[in-house]
Amino acid sequence: MKDTYFFFVTGTSTGVGKTVVSFLLCKFFLERGMKTIYFKPVQTGAIKDTDENFIKRKLKKFNLFFSKTEFLFKRPVSPHFAARLENKRVSLKTIKKRLKEIKKEFDVIIVEGAGGVAVPVNQKGDLLVDIFSNLKPITVIAGKGGLGALNHFIITESFCRKKRLNVKYFILISSKEKPSFIEIDNKKTLKRLYPYIKVVLIPRMKNFNKLFKIFKKEIGDIK
């Protein structure tokens, strides 16, 4: 089997910027001419739009591949509840099978989680993160950079470690274009606490070209 960059993008909570981070990672590798695929296995709140469509719009000039979302639900609630409302069930076996298929075909796989890392996806209590325990992805945690970030990142990393996931990147996202003194200090603190994890702070901004330039400078060489 070919060597593949296999990323799992998770978050400290829902709505923290996982999709933006996924977009940045996709573009990073696409610019290097690498065959890249984006996969959002489970999506809720898909009444008006989806994360996959957002990525498509932002990267329409690139030859980015997509794996169809296996479980797509309308209501913006936890996957286990969204599935129950539509009389469906999320199967980890189905997702894992698809991951094994695409791993043979691509240089880079970017998998975006749903909600936070510990969100249940079915009534059995299965977690999406359980899929990845034996697949050894490069795990990326995205989260808000301000007040509460230290607690959220520390707890999320600890849970990932419990699930045998090797976290390589913390991506903190500031609340405004210019990071606050708290956000800057949170980055410094996490770097001190986790010298083996790359800690990145990026701004929240509408200019995605400018954002990508900042991300490239901050992230450096991805291994």
Please explain how this structure is put together.
This protein has 223 residues and is α/β, with parallel strands linked by helices. 35% of the residues lie in helices and 19% in strands. It has seven helices and nine strands, in the order βαββαββααββαβαβα. The protein has a seven-stranded parallel beta sheet with strand order 4-2-6-1-7-8-9, sandwiched between helices. α5 packs parallel to α6. The radius of gyration is 17 Å and the shape is globular.
CATH-assigned homologous superfamily: P-loop containing nucleotide triphosphate hydrolases
**SSE pattern, N- to C-terminal:** EHEEHEEHHEEHEHEH
Strand residue content: 15-25%
Structural class: alpha/beta
What is the terminal separation in angstroms?
A: 18 Å
Total beta strands: 9
User: How many H/I helices?
Assistant: 7
User: How would a crystallographer describe the biggest sheet?
Assistant: 7 strands, parallel
- Assembly state: single chain
Task: Look at the structure and give the CATH class.
Answer: Alpha Beta
Rough shape? globular
Q: Write down the CATH topology.
A: Rossmann fold
Task: List low-confidence stretches.
Answer: none
Spatial strand sequence of the major β-sheet: 4-2-6-1-7-8-9
List keywords for this structure.
223 residues, Rossmann fold, two-stranded parallel ribbon, 9 strands, 35% helix, 19% strand, globular
